Amino acid sequence: MHDVIVGVAGELASSLGLVVEHSFEDWPCQYCINRYNYTHETVGSSGVQTHTDSGFLTVLQEDERVGGLEVLDPATGEFVPVDPVAGSFLVNIVDVGTAWSNGRLHNVKHQVRCVAPVARISIAMFLLAPKDDSVSSPESFVDADHPRR
Questions:
Q1: Which Pfam families match (predicted)?
Q2: What is the pTM of this model?
Q3: Number of domains in the chain
Q4: Which of 46, 70, 108, 147 is such that its CA lies 20 to 30 A from the CA of 35?
Q5: Residues 6+ positions from 119 with CB-CB distance below 8 Å
Q6: For residue 39, what is the domain's CATH number?
Q7: Does residue 11 belong to any structural domain of this protein?
């Protein structure tokens, strides 16, 4: 699975025009299975409070039977539901990704809301920052219009 998330990060870097000067191979991953045991009494309540993830990116396999993930629309300040799509993964840029891209990519505030009285399961893969190294923007992301942050 490490190869999958590293591949996604590499493709993201390539899509931004970054020449293969950067590798994510040594960046660690963390995996998490989330289970929310919702009941009739918890419908409408928050399963996870509003937050951003702290790594580089998150790849999420949503529960295809029940939604609940919501992202904050920065233009309106309102949360928008992210409906699950069967057979797909959701990729979020997160805090380190914003720093690494020198602000060209933006992390997303999100939360999970109970929408039905059923168990909801999701699987998350997090690409984290290197433990023994600092993260900085590649030189190609720094220019007069985008000074280093």
A1: 2OG-FeII_Oxy
A2: 0.85
A3: 1
A4: 108
A5: 35, 36, 37, 38
A6: 2.60.120
A7: no
